[in-house]
Amino acid sequence: MLASCASTRPVANVPLAPPEPYTRIAHPDTNTVQLQIAVRKFLPTHHRGPVVWLAGTSHIGDPDYYRALQKHLDAQTLVLFEGVNAGTHKRHVRKSAESPITSPPAKSTPGQPDASEPPGIQTTMAKSLGLVFQLDAINYDRLNFLNSDLSIQQIQRLIAGRAADAPDASASAAGAGEPAAGNASFQNLMQAMDGSSFLGSVMRMGLHFIGSSAKLQAITKLAFIEVLGELKGNLTAMKGMPPDMQQLIQVLIEARNRTVIEDLKTESKLIPRSGSIAIFYGTGHMDDMEKRLTGDLHYHPAGELWLTAFSVELHQTGLSASELAMVQNLIKYQMSQLQQ
User: What is the 3-state secondary structure (H, E, C) of 87-148?
Assistant: First the structure.
């Protein structure tokens, strides 16, 4: 059920209110802790354009969570989804409202992993926690699903360009042919995620160890809930990270969000006002995405629903109340340091 959400027409020269968080920690009873994620509805202030849903998502979650998301996305006229790919840019904007949405063939598509490749870190992580990975749970083979993202090559060029324009000499300090710090961080991240690096291998072993114990599973899930709940869907709030990682996050969020908004502008002209568009991206994109949607396109929030991504039954942790509080306080402290 949609929760009512106060909305008014923006007044000229009055700053828009900052977005409400897209993640929250819920306690439906004394024994349960849940990570909940918002799916937020927006209407055009001047009544021109379709309904837009910002469908934030966790990349790992319970099967029931993804079933609820799938049902919501399938009900929309169009879904612009997140999908960085290693090949050519697969975005394909339709020429008319009637023409079907198609993508060039690829070795693998979201939701259909290549069986010849070992599972990535996110799939391994999900299995170790008794959860499922988004790309394994969501069926992207839908006529209303449109890949709206940058390619890896485009992201690399953007990072390299920003490093070259940086006022300090950190990028130029690299030797000829060596990657700039931001690009190196991106490569390290990609290798860790697909498990091909040494760090990825170590992470994989650690995740298998966590999966061997119900207590470790529960504690790790609780830690994820606390971290994601503290972030509130805004990765740019982590100002305590190294500069190259801040630059990487800025590119991964802002540049890709601009791509989505441009696709939204194009597709909105092809969809009747009675239609709807969902933007299906990770929660880390939603704070900036909402600012662009309300500030540039003059939409306003008109309702929301909260879906439970996953939960922890506290008795499974085997922790006493004081130990549980210590874990929670430690995570809160670490997150506060990153946000300074």
Answer: CCCCCCCCCCCCCCCCCCCCCCECCECCCCCCCCHHHHHHHHCCCEEHHHHCCCCCCCEEEC
- Does residue 52 lie within any of the structural domains? yes
The domain tally of the chain equals 1
Tell me which residue of 281, 252, 235, 272 sits closest to 80, measured CA to CA: 281
Backbone angles phi and psi of 300, in degrees to 5:
-140, 150
- Chain-centre distance of CA 275, in angstroms? 24
How far apart CA 276 and CA 193 sit, in angstroms, is 33
Q: CA torsion 313→319→322→326, rounded to 10°?
A: -90
| Cβ-Cβ contacts under 8 Å for 3 (sequence gap 6 or more) | 303, 304, 305, 306
Does some domain include residue 9? no
pTM confidence score: 0.77
**Is 274 within a domain?**
yes
Tens digits of pLDDT across the chain (340 residues): 444 343 344 444 456 778 899 999 999 998 899 999 999 999 999 878 899 999 999 999 999 999 999 999 999 999 999 987 633 334 444 444 444 444 433 434 454 444 444 457 778 888 888 999 999 999 999 999 999 998 888 887 887 776 555 544 343 334 444 444 445 655 555 555 555 555 556 666 777 767 678 888 888 898 889 888 877 766 666 666 666 677 777 778 989 999 999 999 999 999 988 899 999 999 999 999 999 999 999 999 999 999 999 999 988 888 778 878 888 888 888 877 776 6
| Residue 239 phi, psi dihedral angles, 5° rounding | -85, -10
d(CA 109, CA 74): 18
Range of the domain at 220: 23-338
Residue 249 in tokens: 């996050």
Asked if residue 1 belongs to a domain, the reply is no
Q: In whole angstroms, what is the distance from residue 134 CA to residue 311 CA?
A: 16
